[in-house]
Amino acid sequence: MFSVQRRGVARLAAATLVSGLVAAGTIAIAGPAMADGADHGTGGATATLGNLTVWDRVTVAGKDQPVAAGLFQMDVKPGGSIQTYCIDFRTEAIKDEEYKEVGWEASSLHNNKDAGKIRWILQNSYPQVNDLAALASKAGAKSLTKKTAAAATQAAIWHFSDGLDAKPVDTEAQKLTDYLEKEAQNLEEPKASLSLSPSSVAGKVGERLGPITVSTNAEKAVVSLTPGAPAGVKIVDKDGKVVSDVANGSQVFFDVPAGTPDGSAELSVKADTTVPIGRAFVSTRIKSQTLILAGTSTSTVSAKATGTWAKKGAIPAVSAEKNCAKGGLDFTASNEGDEDWTFNLKGAEYKIAPGESKTFTVPVAEDEAYDFTITGPNNFSKTFKGVLDCKTATPGPKPSETPSGTPSPSETPATGGTGTTGSTTGGGDLAETGGSSATPMIAGVAAALVVVGGGAVFFLRKKKTAGQ
User: Fold this and answer.
1) In contact, 323 and 311? CB cutoff 8 Å
2) Residue 165 and residue 320: Cα distance in Å, rounded?
3) Would the N or C end of the chain have less CB density within 10 A of its end CB?
């Protein structure tokens, strides 16, 4: 339900032909546009959602049948893997969707007074505690398996993230859920694996542009200019020394020699590290279930920042980050030039005087996909794309859900095979809606059906005319 499985493409084609060709146009244009996600400076891990790999059944108060609950596997780009639990029960989890590591303030945890208790559960249960006998003993359970421990942990997390009364079907695992909910304590939010602040700087030719401060839990990170930087531009420290390695707290600058033509450059910072347990992961292109980190391998994380320079006139810099408390994006715009910089954003005009920096919030509706481009002199252009997903979904039908009486993806009963959390269907494949690998095939089938259908109509009309 709500999925297009690979083995069902042929059946979909037949159903589309029978039900009418109007739907074909809708299928052909379906799927999210590519987007950049969060601002580069937020940095951290980027991962792709995979299967629910370790799970068991959980009963949820108000639901007729159990749901699958446990750990998702996610692949980090360009290397590494992580495991996550769900903190957004009523939202569909879309396989192959891209996710970005964010702080709690940029997720549904921003106003959750129990967010720290969720982190405590993550650190004191499976998979962080891999000794299942010891974990069972603490909970007063006879025994636990990886599957029942994962389900019990997810049920306890849902209690604090979504206010659910959820219990594992396994009676021994219920004791673990009860133990976790009772003993949970509020812990501090974990820090980002890697971030840069600010993510955009500006200045005049012949100056050092910055500083850009590096924050990371890695012992060291590699900094470099991305390809295409003008000749002579370098990355240096506060003393003007060229740097290639940085650490937590390091400050770096773009060194732009005198005589360099007006332009811009980008630097990249990369590190191999473990992302801290409890970091939130949100989708970058379309709304998909918010997740929280439970297990991690060493992964490659990255962050980027841009520098813009000119000899005279306005020299802009702009960065943005989600502000869930205010329901929008916080933009910080500065002007290091000698003339005013004026730009328009979502119907409003902003003027930044020379040497001035302003921060303002642009409202964005919950679950709205945004796409803002800010332009300036010397071909300055910066685009911010993503989805504002700051709240857990609330109970009740939504306009996009199925007719009354049909369970939503989050209420799909758990069955055999490879299950999903309470937000996707069961079976051998996870939901492949949105940007799935099946979408191009579906579009092709739909286009072919339009041609075939049009030919059939023409043939029948011609036959009828000949008969008359």
Assistant:
1) no
2) 37
3) C
Burial of 440 (0-12, 13-18, 19+ CB in 10 A): exposed
What is the model's pTM? Answer: 0.77
Question: What contacts 93, CB < 8 A, 6 or more positions away?
Answer: 49, 72, 86, 288, 289, 291, 409, 420, 421, 423, 424, 430, 431
If phi > 0 it is left, if psi is from -120 to 50 it is alpha, else beta; for residue 163 that is left
pLDDT tens-digit series, residues 229-284 = 999 999 999 999 999 999 999 999 999 999 999 999 999 999 999 999 999 999 99
* Rounded-to-integer distance, Cα 130 and Cα 135, Å: 8
Give yes or no for a contact between 83 and 295, defined as CB atoms under 8 angstroms apart: yes
Residue 199 has a CB neighbour count (10 Å cut-off) of: 24
Using 50, 70 and 90 to split pLDDT, how confident is the model at 396? low
C-beta of residue 255 within 8 angstroms of C-beta of residue 236: yes
Count of CB atoms within 10 A of residue 106's CB? 22
Amino acid at 141: A
Evaluate whether 309 touches 209 at the Cβ level (below 8 Å): yes
Residues 6+ apart with CB under 8 A from 376: 314, 316, 341, 343
**Percent of the chain predicted with pLDDT > 70:** 76
Q: What are phi and psi of 356, to 5 degrees?
A: -100, 150
Distance CA 213, CA 384 (A): 21
Q: Measure the CA–CA gap between 66 and 314, rounded to whole angstroms.
A: 60
Residue with tokens 């959980």: 58
